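Lab manual, section 2.4: Encoding a predicted structure.

Procedure: take the sequence of the chain (194 residues), apply the prediction step described in section 2.3, and record the output as structure tokens. A sample record is shown.
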Amino acid sequence: WQSAMAPINLKRDVPLLAFNFSSAIILISCNKFVFKAGFSFPAILSLFQYCATYSLLEVVARFGIFTPLKAGTMDRQLTILAIVIGLATPISNLSLKYNSVGVYTIAKLLITPAAVAGDYMMRGKQISMVRGAILLFLCSSVLFTGKTDLELNFAGTLIIIAWLPVAVMYKVGWAKAVKERGFETLALMHLITP
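Recorded output:
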């Protein structure tokens, strides 16, 4: 395997990964709590999440953390990416509604190796042995810890099957926009958040 990615910066990447991991756990737990409390509208929950995300991005932009991209930057590829993102979160929330947290987490975890495979098939992009080993370790860890909460059902399984390709298109499209166009993550998020 060849490394086509930037070298790992431990001082930057470890805190970002820890924040990403922690925020994902908190968001999943909050969403599941909302569904268990009787809220049955994943698309509306997604709308609330998009509004909160966009509002926070506006605040961060006003503090000068990033420079927003101009509206004229939108093209066909970014429009498709925005549509994919607009579909991915509601389908993800629907999956969480119909699946146990363990099944949802394992399905969410499958996105990364599927995205790596998709990136390889679509662009010939390979990952380094170190990143492959880390990915294998993380997948094994989630499978091991998630095995206690595996409640499969037909509807939930169908939703996961629909969600995985959309989520892979999201991840690959996002990485392509950031890497090939040089967009900052926050600026791109601000531009295409539905």
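Check your result against the sample. Confidence is low (pLDDT under 50) at residues 1-5.
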